[in-house]
Automatic annotation (TrEMBL):
Name of protein: YncE family protein
Keywords: Signal
Superkingdom per UniProt: Bacteria
PANTHER family linked: DIHYDRO-HEME D1 DEHYDROGENASE, PROTEIN NIRF
Keyword Signal: yes
UniProt xrefs under InterPro entries: Haem_d1_sf, Host-pathogen_enzymatic-act, WD40/YVTN_repeat-like_dom_sf
Signal peptide: 1-24
Length: 364
């Protein structure tokens, strides 16, 4: 049976997600056979449990209410329609359930209670609302915003859940940010002129501002009450940057921002002045800050490593090497574990060299 996911769209999708990696009709979550799941998860080092899971893995979310680790999957970009939302045991990584979706899943955001999470269906410019207990897709919202030059929907990449508002960054030039009212699940406003490709979003409790990174090398400072862009920061050195993912240490007012393509570095901004106070050289994709351990974690797709840094000295305390490329990161609620999605390389025909994986690193 011929797939409706065209070869041209597959090639474009593979190129976009490779550059910007992170980000309803469904089958309700179902239980997997325990022996298969148990056999698939295995320790690869004393502190690491690795699970080969499936194709097209991207962001992760932990639900304390459901005691589950969710993993967004776009499945294969070659001759495969739709995606999967995997529900895993957060300790063993055994499969507890699966939801098969008609659209591909990339970014994830979860509410504070852990009852509901959202996933971006990036290639279709939409967002899905999912019950974290059952894995059932509750609602789907087509964001609109027009088409790109090839006639495809404007991509929806990263999300930020702040109060009753869900911010969704759109990959366009110029980019924009949709603000969704989570109570009505409708777009309430749009923040326009957000630069080329909105790639990262984060909220600072210190400044009570939202920060958006873009592919033009800017950090936008947004007032969540007025939804206005108040400032635009740049690294200030005249070089080109494609800024991606962010993390913050609110105790010291530092904003960490990665660039995995043009500059191959992690920038540390003073969140009060908007000035760069430190550069951590090396390829850098995902980044997380762990306040309980005063540590920074960086995924290096090119080097196939995950770094554990002391957040004060920036010294590398530990690193973990993998056979495939680390992508998205998630710190556990207790700060004692780090989850990583690991991706296979793409072939020329948009297929991959194997299934993607998930790793759980016990932090010591």
């Amino acid at each position: 049976m011929k797939s409706f996911f065209s070869s041209r769209k597959a090639a474009v999708a593979a190129a976009v997600v490779a550059a910007l990696s992170l980000t309803a009709c469904q089958t309700p979550a179902k239980k997997a056979e325990t022996p298969v799941a148990a056999a698939a998860a295995k320790p690869v080092a004393q502190a690491v449990t690795l699970r080969v899971l499936g194709d097209g893995l991207y962001e992760l979310a932990y639900s304390s209410a459901a005691s589950a680790l969710y993993v967004a999957s776009a499945q294969s970009f070659k001759e495969v329609n739709g995606g999967i939302l995997y529900r895993l045991d957060p300790t063993t990584l055994a499969t507890k359930g699966e939801t098969h979706t008609d659209l591909k899943n990339f970014g994830m955001a979860i509410d504070e209670k852990g009852d509901t999470f959202y996933t971006t269906n990036s290639l279709d410019g939409s967002v899905s609302k999912v019950d974290a207990h059952s894995g059932k897709v509750l609602q789907r919202l087509a964001l609109g915003g027009g088409k790109d030059k090839d006639g495809d929907a404007i991509g929806a990449r990263e999300m930020l859940l702040h109060g009753n508002e869900l911010y969704v960054g759109r990959v366009a030039d110029p980019g924009f940010i949709n603000v969704i009212d989570t109570k009505t699940f409708k777009v309430k406003t749009t923040i326009k002129n957000a630069g080329k490709w909105v790639t990262g979003l984060i909220y600072s409790p210190l400044t009570e501002r939202i920060y958006a990174a873009n592919g033009g090398g800017e950090i936008l400072v947004i007032n969540p009450r007025s939804h206005k862009i108040e400032q635009r920061w740049t690294p200030g050195d005249g070089k080109e940057y494609l800024l991606l993912n962010m993390a913050e240490d609110p105790a010291t007012g530092r904003l960490f921002v990665t660039d995995d393509s043009k500059a191959k570095t992690t920038l540390v901004f003073d969140i009060h002045s908007g000035k760069v106070i430190k550069r951590i050289e090396g390829d850098a994709l995902g980044i997380k800050f762990n306040a309980r351990r005063n540590e920074i974690y960086i995924s290096q797709r090119e080097s196939k490593k995950v770094l554990q840094l002391d957040a004060t000295s920036y010294a590398v305390k530990n690193s973990w090497s993998f056979d495939t490329s680390p992508n998205s990161l998630l710190v556990s609620a207790d700060g004692e574990a780090l989850y990583v999605s690991l991706k296979q390389a793409f072939n020329e025909d948009s297929s991959t060299k194997g299934a993607d994986s998930v790793a759980r690193i016990a932090l010591k």
